[in-house]
Design brief:
With 239 residues, this protein is of the alpha/beta class. The chain contains nine helices and seven strands; from the N terminus they run βαββαβαβααββαααα. It has helices spanning 12-23, 59-66, 101-111, 122-126, 129-139, 172-176, 179-192, 211-219, 224-236; strands at 5-8, 30-33, 50-53, 75-78, 115-120, 143-149, 162-168. It is globular.
Length: 239
């Protein structure tokens, strides 16, 4: 069966951007679901090779292509909303209705994807978000690891620090046995990726809405070049 990606994104502008990327062949073909993640059921995900939650403008899917990961390699990705923890938000933290990790965690617990990749802002980490995610995933039997990588690490002209994490169905012992290889692979991945002057990724929204939507889409997106470096290093750690 042909591999297909599932994207869950409630913002119509970002959802259409993702469809445009598919049409241009920059990311794998797939389906964009604009429902709230809390309305998604495990059966809705059957038949998809990869699932991307809080997909935005498909930064994770594009990063996987940059990292050279085959389209039929099964995994899930997600960038939970940072607004509950950001300085620009209300600062309600776990009490904010936009704290959607519990909804994603429930889908993970029901579907048990082999690999989960994600990211979050450092401020959320300081408020205990990473501890919650790590504990939840380890209770489900995943080995968990995280690393801080700023955008400037791949040559961008801004910092944009983010915590990047991997949850793997492999055992913790197998992960620890390969720490040295992971360290070497991480250094190699950072040397491979440089900030491109033009990638085509930012030109797929022509003619849709206005500048504010464009700014919002980029503001909520990951930096694909950083994600690609993380993906290559993280997957190299696997047996």
């Amino acid at each position: 069966m042909k591999s297909r990606d599932y994207h869950n994104e409630i913002d119509p502008y970002a959802a259409q951007w993702t469809r445009n990327l598919m049409k241009k062949g920059l990311i794998p073909d797939g389906f964009v679901d604009e429902r709230d993640i809390r309305d998604v059921q495990p059966m809705d995900l059957w038949g998809f090779t990869r699932c991307h939650f809080f997909s935005g403008i498909a930064g994770w899917a594009y990063a996987l292509r940059l990292a050279g990961v085959p389209d039929d390699f099964p995994l899930w990705t997600g960038s939970c909303p940072c607004q509950p923890f950001s300085e620009a938000g209300k600062g309600a933290g776990f009490d904010d209705e936009r704290h959607l990790w519990p909804a994603w965690q429930w889908l993970i617990s029901q579907s048990r994807p082999p690999i989960i990749l994600g990211e979050q802002t450092p401020r959320a980490i300081r408020m205990g978000w990473l501890d919650l995610v790590a504990n939840d995933l380890e209770r489900l039997g995943y080995a968990f690891g995280a690393v801080l990588i700023p955008a400037c690490a791949v040559g961008a002209k801004h910092i944009r620090e983010r915590i990047w994490f991997l949850a793997d169905a492999a055992s913790e012992r197998r992960i620890n046995d390969r720490r040295q290889q992971c360290s070497s692979s991480s250094d190699e991945a950072r040397s491979l990726y440089r900030w491109p002057s033009e990638s085509g990724f930012s030109r797929t929204s022509d003619g849709i809405l206005g500048r504010m939507a464009l700014v919002r889409a980029f503001g909520n997106s990951i930096v694909p070049q950083v994600a690609a470096a993380f993906i290559e290093a993280a997957l190299a750690c696997r047996p």
